[in-house]
Amino acid sequence: MNIYSKRWQALGYLTAGAFLSPLDYFIVNMALPSIKKAFNASDHQLQMVVAIYGLTYAALVVCGGRLGDLYGRKNIFILGLYLFLCSSLACAFSPDITFLIIARLFQGVGASFLAPQVLASIRVLFNSSEQPKAVSIFSSVFGLASVAGQLLGGFLLNLHWTQLSWEMVFLVNVPVTLLCIIGIHFTMDNKREEKKQKIDFTGALLLIISLLMFICPIIFGRKYHWEWWIFAVLLAGVLLLALFYRYEVYSMAKNRPVLIDPTLLQHQPFVLCLFIIFFYNFTSGLFICYPYYLQQFLHQNPVETGLAIIPYGIAFFLGPLLIPRIKISADTMIYVGLGLLITGFSLTSLFIGFQEKPSIATDISLFLAGLGHGIIMPVMMRKTIALISKEKAGQASGLISISIQIGSVTGGTIIGTVFFSTIEFVGFPKAFALAVLIIAAVQMIGITINKRLQSYVKK
Predict the structure, then answer these.
(1) Model confidence over 351-385: pLDDT tens digits?
(2) Which Pfam families is this protein grouped with (predicted)?
(3) Could you tell me if 143 and 320 are in contact, meaning their C-beta atoms sit under 8 angstroms apart?
(4) DSSP structure class, residue 137
(5) Structural domain boundaries, residue 361
(6) Helix (H, G, I), strand (E, B), or coil: what is residue 160?
(7) In sequence order, which residues have a C-beta less than 8 Å from that of residue 278 and are 6 or more positions away?
(8) What gap in Å lies between CA 356 and CA 165, rounded to an integer?
(9) Pick from 16, 17, 317, 39: which is nearest to 151 by CA?
């Protein structure tokens, strides 16, 4: 029996705080054309505004989960909220694009302290019968953020309150963070799983550098015409990631602190689940390309752009709420989710490629894709976290979050690079259609991995 009576109230504030992380991703995408105009920024600088946030989040989210284990999830969650608050203010009042990119980096640091505390707390505070409902509530936040990000972003960009425009998409974080800081103080306990170990800062540094060396060449490759050294840096990032893993194995053998328990990465079903999560988050490319396409090619205003993405966002929000009511196995639901993603994005590519302007058919196809996203997210989160013991819940939730973020950053970077690189050759409609079709194609990898996952479990 769960004795923590305030667990549902705490989940509400945890979820509201974690809501900020995806909200800031979606809402900033809406503001990219305005930021470009304000700072005369290049396309690769705009990609960095998006990518540096997700990259920092991805690199440090495991640290966030580990810090929660060591110093209390309540303390680390509140620290993340304060960091997010201060960096959001810095973003809003950036004097140039370089300052904005740096402020976004620190915003990513704050975000990395938030999400891991939610998943780990669900694993610890809720019993097995309550966890599906709790995970579904948390997962629905991502869908809600996609709706709120697009609509709220469009509204704020049109508001022009006291001469402010794109700045408002960052200032909107202020009241939410303050509310969560107060609420979490009164509703959440401060349970610690481990107290004696320290943080593996060397491992964290290796992970951050390797991810930077992997993502940055993809972003800046087009600018430097894909010179040989771009691929050399990319390869070095992959090798450094392998070195990070070997260092973690060595540290564990020597009884030193580790950032990621290597045994988690040796747990094949767990790792296969992480790969599925990684690939379905390539859907982030839609939220980079679609607002840009609508505003730059079709000259829609921010509100119209926000409304155009609503079908995807509504379905993304509804998907996690429907999951507990559907009596189908998790393995089948994964196929259903990936199948809807493939169908929805393929049809969207087809409709935009031929019609150029969004239509009711486009809305339906985006709804199908969003429903697929909303279905697969809670299923994969619950399936993955259930494979790991409560003692390693913080690290496991950190790895789930890192898979989400690296998938989002990598997918957004690759899809965005394809989109921006092909516009001048094939035009806006076909460039966008190609980008969306690639998102659909990538989901086939997830289906292949799920087949392997099922065969492994049967053994």
Answers:
(1) 998 888 889 999 999 999 999 998 998 888 888 87
(2) MFS_1
(3) yes
(4) H
(5) 7-199+259-458
(6) coil
(7) 403, 404, 406, 407, 410
(8) 28
(9) 317
